[in-house]
Amino acid sequence: MTAHAPVPPLWNCAGCGVGWPCPTRRRELRAEFEDAPVSLALYMSSHFVRAAEDLVGVPAGQLHQRFVGWVRGDEQVHQHTERHLAGERPRFRRRRI
Ligand SMILES: [Zn+2]
């Protein structure tokens, strides 16, 4: 259990008070979902949707970047999905960081 949990409706971090996910939580999440970038993207997307309901004054693009845009491999996942939808065989290469 992390101290760096989101606190709705402002979605600041309970641990350090900055906008969630804070740098510490992002590091934790990257580690927790190291082998599951798609799951991390889905997890953060669900938070993005909930936060968007609370933070109505914040532009959606800015919120999306804050909650989902930092997720490692997001672009790869997107390309993978597009290829899949286009009927191509998936060629999912692991990237070493
Ligand atoms: Zn924090």
Describe this structure in words.
- This is Flavin reductase.
- It comes from Micromonospora rhizosphaerae.
- The chain has helices spanning 23-32, 37-54, 60-69, 74-85, and strands at residues 6-7, 12-13.
- It has one domain (6-85).
- A hairpin with a 4-residue loop joins strand 1 (6-7) and strand 2 (12-13).
- It has a two-stranded antiparallel sheet with strand order 1-2.
- It has 97 residues and is mainly alpha-helical.
- It has four helices and two strands; from the N terminus they run ββαααα.
- It starts with 5 loop residues before the first strand and ends in a 12-residue tail after the last helix.
- It is globular, with a radius of gyration of 15 Å.
- 12% of the residues are buried.
- Helix 2 (37-54) packs antiparallel against helix 3 (60-69).
- The protein binds zinc ion.
- The site of zinc ion has 7 residues, from helix 1.
